[in-house]
Amino acid sequence: MKLKNILIVVDDVDRAVKFYKEIFGLYVVLNSDSNVILSEGLVLQDKKVWQETLGKEIESHNNAMELYFEDSDIGKLLDKIENIEETIEFVSKGAEMLRFYDPFGNLIEVRKKQHGI
Q1: What average pLDDT is seen over the chain?
Q2: Cβ pair 67, 57 in contact under 8 A
Q3: Distance of CA 60 to the CA centre of its chain
Q4: pLDDT in tens, 60-106
Q5: Can you give the chain as a three-state secondary structure string?
Q6: Which pairs with CB-CB distance under 8 Å and at least 24 residues apart come from 32-39?
């Protein structure tokens, strides 16, 4: 068995594609309108479709999961985040780690990549 993808729920798939491209450089691998697979195995699912599929309400900012990234230049990433059109809610900021919510309430952590690891 092999883990293939991680799915997150978003209110606006097109807006989410733009966000993840601008901040993380991810690109669309497959677009099925309400379900988009990005590079690195991240799947964006339209909130309305997901709620219909599950028959349950989706709670934003539930802190039940986190997307984890590494970057060699946290300062440059912070500048990038602070200069996009979206308003980003930070949980913590530091020289070695950022933790924030994407525009849809999904928690993201980015740590400074250690050279040689």
Answers
A1: 95
A2: no
A3: 13
A4: 999 999 999 999 999 999 999 999 999 999 999 999 999 999 999 99
A5: CCCCCEEEEECCHHHHHHHHHHHHCCCEEEECCCEEEEHHHEEEEEHHHHHHHHCCCCCCCCCCCCEEEEECCHHHHHHHHHCCCCCCEEEEECCCEEEEECCCCCEEEEEECCCCC
A6: 37/5
